[in-house]
Every structure is written in structure tokens, then in C-alpha cells.
Fold:
Amino acid sequence: MDIVIRVAAELVNLLTPGEDRGRRYVPPEDDERTAAVGAVLRGAGAREATWEEAAELCLVAAELRGVFEAVSTGAVDDAARQVNALLIRTGARPELERHDGEPWHLHFHSADGTLPDGWAAGCGTGLAVVLGGELHDRLGVCTAPRCDRVYVDTSRNGTRRYCSTSCQNRVKTAAFRARST
Structure:
């Protein structure tokens, strides 16, 4: 599940517009998008996406962003409804698989077998597991000014509030400067 949750956050941050570390963020397009999505999927041990699949994953990323945003505002019920809709749309179904010398493990696939819906089903299932457990507050949207990138808090104490150390440092520096004046 760790992999699909990580991929969910990476796809949201890569493919949705907004702000990133104090700057306007515009997602990559065309071949640049395909290459960037390919890097995310390769990092998860999956095949690369075609241009069309990478474009479809933009829609998936927008759906996934809604879940992170709902959780970050405390609207867990809304997040759960969004995840349920995603699971229904993709027809997510469990299947035991063994590959790359790994033992049998659970994968979730879409009913249609396409790469975008397959990742939507897997990411949706991973988010469902998180939302259905005690760790739903580990999903978040960066609280730094001018940043809306999402994160998954894997820290021991569960107090992460920023998408990166860069944003954390920006906030701390601004607070220091405000105290110094």
C-alpha cells in the first residue's frame, strides 16, 4: 500500500496546477508530461505510460487531489465519498500477484484493465485503507503560504505539515524575520 499512496501523492503534485514552494506551478505537457509520469511509474516498478495514458492520468490526479484536500480540511466523510466514487468508477477488484521475485501480494486492478484506471483503482484502494484506519490524518496539503502540494506523513509522531523541508524552512525563516523586526 505504501507504493500506491506514494504514487497518488506524486501524481497529484506532478499533474495538478497550483502553487509549489511559493511559486506558481504549471504541470508539464505533452512529451514532458509523458516522461515525468513515466518516471513516477518506473519508480513504482510499473511500465511507462503512453502519451494518451499520461493525459488520462491528469484526470485521475485531479480526483486524488480532492481526497487529500478533503482530509486536510477535516472533511473525512467527503474524502471517503470521493474514494468510494473512484472505486466504483474503476471497478477496483483485488487480485493476488507475484512478480520480480516478490512473495504473493495484493494488487487492485480496474475492470477495464487500462493503465490510468488501474492506477486510479490502486491509488483509490490505498487511500481507502488509510481513510478506513486510524491514520487518515497522515494525508495532507502543505500549510506553507503559496504552496498546495500534497504529502503523506510517514514520520514517527505524525506531525508533518509541509510538503518538503524547503517549505518548512521558508515558514521558519519568515517567522524568524518577523520576530527580528
About this structure: The radius of gyration is 17 Å. Strands lie at 18-20, 23-25, 93-97, 105-109, 139-141, 150-152.
